[in-house]
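Example record

One chain of 356 residues, shown exactly as stored in the release files.
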Amino acid sequence: MYLSKLLLQNFRSYDQQLLEFDPKFNLILGPNGSGKTNVLESIFFMSCGKSFRSSSQSKMINWNKNFASVRGKVVNDKQETSEIEVQLIKNPDSRISTVSRRFLIDKVIKTRKNYIGVLKTVIFHPEDIRLITGSPNRRREFFDNIFSQTEWRYTSALSQYKKALKHRNELLDQIRLGFAKDSDLFYWDQVLVKNARIVHDFRINFITSVNNFLSNHSDSQINTLSINYHPSLLSEERLKKNYQIDLKHGYTQFGLHRDDFSFDNSIFSTPDKNLAFWGSRGQQRLAVLALRLAQINFLEENYYDKPILLLDDIFSELDLEHQQLVVKVCHKYQTIFTTAEPESADILPDAKIIKI
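Predicted structure tokens for this chain:
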């Protein structure tokens, strides 16, 4: 599968822009601030209805506009084409600015459940380094972005979990103030536990796949890496045992909203092999690259479909050896690179150059 055309309307900095892509290598070339990353964001957004840059949907709509559209022509392995589109629509009657999404395949409106999985992407960008050094929330978002493109069951369970968590935390405050009873928690506890199990199963399967990929990799700098998953597992028994602490804080202390993972490297002689503490910036960049390669492998093994690779100015972050590794991997996929450096075209002599 590959993306042959992309039409942007009122998306970020673009009023209207049509881009055409080669089935293999594409290099978007332009100065900083010209909107290169906006193009990659639009393709990612078209794949799942989410941004990898912002949680605010309204920010993706061009200034002073109430509507945005990202439309693409997709060609499958049988050379059959289909048109997919995600629209963002502001509600002008709302006191607080709200935005709704509309998903379409061949101009027919679809539910998000029936849209997910049509187009799969893997994004590489410089901020990936923060998967190692940043907050646990960033790493949880990494999980969510993977499955938001592929698994409606994950997306639905996560949404129900978040709603139940919000209600449970509000109810804890009401119980502490004497306006509710502890028995009122029963329903929300059940919803939390049920949906946490679903999400955790997906996350554990992904981590297992990643570690198998890393340990079997031919690169000696990659096969010493592993992902150490730190799930905050939830059960009815644990919720009951921790009830008084939750009540005191007014917040549920355990659950998948507290999940985390770390990058370990077995070459470190310390008991704690976390790259965030002991790894050089070069080692950390390589670990993130390895994680993205493992993500590609996971998507292919589990969904039998080649993702589109989106690489945002990553050559500046990698040494020559691993630049060549990336290019070697990318030969199997449609890849869209961005760069502000014309010299990057030397690394990709076969790429279609798209100037912005």
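Notes: The first strand starts at residue 2 and ends at 11.
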